[in-house]
């Protein structure tokens, strides 16, 4: 029951024992994507029809929500050449299986979807992306403490550990011991609460005040401190040519950082003929650190040097994206830190550049 006298619109309480009933109801009404154990210690966002497989006590998933809205490979359209020389095209099949609830993403992953919305929402809007996003409901779970040591969301001006309205979630669940404080972020979230209203009780001012306490308590657990706006200014004002040369020698061009990154949006398109006159145009993930990414007709490549491509990556994330969208292209999830074989991850780069305005020969020791 709610003890306070002043009820707050848009905030609700959900008892933890009622979460199971909610999940069972959601599975009947929607496709449900949630974090689940996989391959030993790993967790993956996966579809589930069994609420018992859902595990919300995870540190970070080995995949991101990006693959659901912007798949690694998808058909843009199928084509057939006619005898009169014209070409008939049919839009690629929609592989998104109906209305989908994404339950359990951390704040950093929600902000990554918000970033993708900014990119794919530029006019003309990307229909392949939005036909999936429009059918999704994002239910985030705020962090009471950093899920893992490599998290640095609070220093990216983008996310976490607890979000505010307008930052990407439809609903946000905040763990308050015996129950969740549920915050409505959008009309989708409001409709969700209305649909399962029997399980939710309107919250009050006294409980809402605990949200700030959770956020302040979590912030104390972050070990490092820096302002990403300082990085933005440094990238704008100083010459880092020697740093780019060092990092260019270090990078192996594997592309792991780009493919696991929840905000990277690089892609290529290709026409594939399956039989005479019939085929498809596909869109697939690409990486701006690959030498072929900017190679043009005739073999000309304006970014042939590895150092140029490394520079482009960090400038994109920490400078250009902020200029374009007002948000940085890094949410501080830290995934790149555990896939890069040479410790050339975003957090290491930021921390290193904060130490000096000059050439920093090494980031982390191999």
Q: How many strands appear in the DSSP assignment?
A: 12
User: What is the CA–CA distance across the termini?
Assistant: 55 Å
Question: Can you give the helix content as a percent range?
Answer: 25-40%
Shape: globular
The structural class is alpha+beta
Residue share in β-strands: 15-25%
The overall pLDDT, averaged over residues, is 89
Integer-rounded radius of gyration: 22 Å
Number of helices: 11
How would you write the strand order of the largest sheet?
Answer: 3-2-6-7-8-9-1-10
Element order, helices and strands? Answer: EHEEHEEEHHEEEHEHHHHEEHH
**Low-confidence segments:** none
Count of discrete domains: 2
Biggest sheet descriptor = 8 strands, mixed
Describe the fold and architecture.
This protein is of the alpha+beta class and 366 residues long. It has two domains: 7-219, no CATH class; 228-355, no CATH class. The chain contains eleven helices and twelve strands. The protein has helices at 16-29, 66-69, 107-120, 127-133, 187-195, 205-219, 228-237, 241-250, 256-260, 306-325, 346-355; strands at 7-15, 31-38, 42-48, 73-81, 87-91, 100-103, 136-141, 171-176, 179-184, 201-204, 267-275, 278-285. The strands form two sheets. Strands 3-2-6-7-8-9-1-10 form an eight-stranded mixed sheet, with helices on both faces. Strands 5-4-12-11 form a four-stranded antiparallel sheet, with no helix packed on it. Helix 7 (228-237) crosses helix 10 and helix 8 packs across helix 10. The longest helix has 20 residues, at 306-325. The protein is globular.
